[in-house]
Amino acid sequence: MKHSILAILVVLVCGLIVMAAGNAGDQSLPATANDYKILAPITHGDLTIFPVVSDKTHDTSNFITLDEGIRSGDVVVTEVGNLHSTMRRRPPYQVRPYSGAEVNRLVLVNNSKHPLILLAGEVVTGGKQDRVVGKDRIVPAESDPVDLSVFCVEHGRWTETSAKFDTHASVMLQPSVRKQAMAEQDQQKVWDAVGNSRAQMSSAVVAAPPAAVGGGGSGVGSGSGAGLGPDPYAMRLRELDSTTSYAKARENKAVQAQVDSIVEPMQKSYESVIKQLRNQNAVGVVVAVKGHIVWADMFASSALLAKYWPKLLDSYATEALTMPGARGDVSIKEAQEFLENWQAKHEVVDSEPGLYRQRELVGYKFKAFQLTSLLAKAAFDLHLSKMAD
Predict the structure, then answer these.
(1) Nearest to 171 by CA among 48, 46, 62, 312
(2) What is the pLDDT of residues 265-313, one digit of tens each?
(3) Contact assessment for residue 127 and residue 153, using Cβ atoms and an 8 Å cutoff
(4) Strands 64-65 and 116-118, sheet pairing
(5) pLDDT tens per residue, range 135-165
(6) In the chain, which end has fewer C-beta atoms inside a 10 angstrom radius, N or C?
(7) Does the pLDDT of residue 222 top 60, yes or no?
(8) Where does residue 87 rank: exposed (0-12), middle (13-18), buried (19+ CB within 10 A)?
């Protein structure tokens, strides 16, 4: 079989990476029907990611992310019925009647001159309770107030802590919780998944030695560390067990230490792969935990992937930290088969003409969501997420 020089180089580099990771024998495979090419896996502990590259690339520089918009102040998210001071002066628009705050609705205004990308799974904190974006969508530049479909990820609180929401922690729900919001669209299932995740985080912290979670003292149950005041390890466990907020649980220093122990080596390995394949266009990853493929995220450009990568990697690492079961192995062939399988038995399309289209595909053992921009100068697929069912 004839190979181009580039293909041979890719195989050789991936082979070296696999050998270094102790996975000798796997090879990168030809591109899928979608022009996605799966590279050799990067594994640390229970988490495995397969970088995905593509020959296709798009200019996504005109879009802004939710983190960028809120950080700049150009994007404002608030409770329904609390729209004051969210818009800059623009020509009159038709105001729809808003009443009081609602669990599954927020209002967003994009005051920037750029279209905004919202991804399902992005968490906003504040208001009367923390929420998560329920679906991928695009909000136009200089928008009127837009209704957001959201789910609560902080069961129990209904007291306003701030008029506007923030994303200061840049939290993305882990796949098992994100799935409940995107595919099941069921508030109770989201709450149940959040509760289960928090319980697993607590168990993971308890199972780890105090030094591994940044704590001092003698461990759980001790009131002080050698007379130096409260034991920080025990304090962090109490904080974790007392909160109902997914974001606060993820921000807990003991949990963050555990997540970082997975993220940091994975990030170094990922950067090494992309550096060696700098002529390739890294657009996404296939994710496996304990030998089971659970998710895939693909973007329109490597630049867009880079913007979301830190919060995505954190979410994958959290899944690895909290998913029960024994460790297993997963092959590059399985990852490619997962990415090639798009045979849908059911499809639902949600569209705003001239702005975006979202397709939900339900197939054998998978669900996928495809966000396509319909903007005149940016008509292409922006984000594709796929979950194992």
Answers:
(1) 312
(2) 999 998 888 776 666 789 999 999 999 999 999 999 999 999 999 999 9
(3) no
(4) parallel
(5) 999 999 999 999 999 999 998 888 888 888 9
(6) N
(7) no
(8) middle
Position 140, amino acid: P
Q: Which residues pair with 108 in a beta bridge?
A: 77, 146
pLDDT tens digits, one per residue of 2-17: 444 334 333 333 433 3
Non-local (6+) Cβ contacts of 229 within 8 A are: none
Q: Which amino acid is at 370?
A: Q
Rounded to an integer, what distance in angstroms lies between the CA atom of residue 351 and that of residue 371? 10
Partners of 245 in beta bridges: 154
Q: Report how far apart the first and last C-alpha atoms of the chain are (Å, whole number).
A: 36
CA 115 to CA 271: how far, in whole Å? 29
What letter represents residue 132's amino acid? Answer: V
Judge if pTM exceeds 0.85: no
> How far out from the chain centre does Cα 87 lie?
28
